[in-house]
Amino acid sequence: MDLIQIKDLKFSYPTKKDTLKGINIAVEKGSFTCIVGENGSGKSTLLKCILGLNKGYTGEIIKTNYIGYLPQKSEIQSNFPATIEEVVLSGTISNNIKSIFYKKEDKEKAREIMEKLEIYDIRKKCFANLSGGQQQRVLIARALCAGKDIIVLDEPTNGLDPSISIQIYELLKKLKEDSMTILIVSHDVERALKYADKVVEIQNGEVTFCGVPSDFKLGGAK
After folding, report:
1. Is 70 in the same domain as 52?
2. Most exposed of 14, 42, 87, 156 (fewest Cβ within 10 Å)?
3. Is residue 195 part of a domain?
4. Are residues 52 and 70 in the same domain?
């Protein structure tokens, strides 16, 4: 079963034509799919089309309604004055459109996710006072609150120490083993090949590889 199907997707920015040139990929339920490619190749643009953040594309995107999203770190306010618990709970806001209060089931879901990601015991700490790795763990928890089917992550280890990056990938691996579908954009090709079960390479807005990591040849992406 595919949670996301992309058919002949094309997209251009006003200042950059043909950013995406007919993308065709699918993200299967339960998979760990990693999109790799050079900076400016169209990886993040593709994610934003999937999430509905980029309008005006042509082609077709068929997707589940339950997607959690972790944007690039540069798009996140790291000094946000809220507790870990408040940040994680905010992932359920889309479920509470008609109410300013969190539902009991949303609080329970947030608690279970925080326990799974080993941040429940520190849930009252201020998000702004956490290390970069801890902040990413919290934001992954928030994404899990928003998406029960799949989480989409854009360069989740960018700017983190190698040891912390490994911890994040190990966390994603465990989530995948617990039946969560993972779609990630990463410049870290070697780590993507180690953890993903499907790799998609994009160069100049086109898919140049789509398959299992063992068939991918290093050197084309960075």
Report:
1. no
2. 14
3. yes
4. no
Q: Which domain holds residue 220?
A: 1-64+180-222
Q: Is residue 7 part of a domain?
A: yes
3-state secondary structure the chain: CEEEEEEEEEEEECCEEEEEEEEEEEEECCCEEEEECCCCCCHHHHHHHHCCCCCCCEEEEEECCCEEEECCHHHCCCCCCCEHHHHHHHHHHHHCCCCCCCCHHHHHHHHHHHHHCCCHHHCCCEHHHCCHHHHHHHHHHHHHHHCCCEEEEECCCCCCCHHHHHHHHHHHHHHHHCCCEEEEECCCHHHHHHHCCEEEEEECCEEEEEECHHHCCCCCCC
Q: How many domains does the chain have?
A: 2
pTM higher than 0.85, yes or no?
A: yes
The enclosing domain of 131 has a CATH number of 3.40.50.300
Same domain as 47, residue 84:
no
∠148-75-125 over CA atoms, to 5°? 70
Same domain, 72 and 45: no
Per-residue pLDDT of the chain (222 residues), as tens digits, is: 899 999 999 999 998 899 999 999 999 999 999 999 988 899 999 999 999 999 999 999 999 988 999 998 765 667 778 999 999 999 987 654 555 577 898 899 999 999 999 999 999 999 999 998 999 999 999 999 988 889 999 999 988 899 999 999 999 999 999 999 999 999 888 888 899 999 999 999 999 999 999 999 865 443
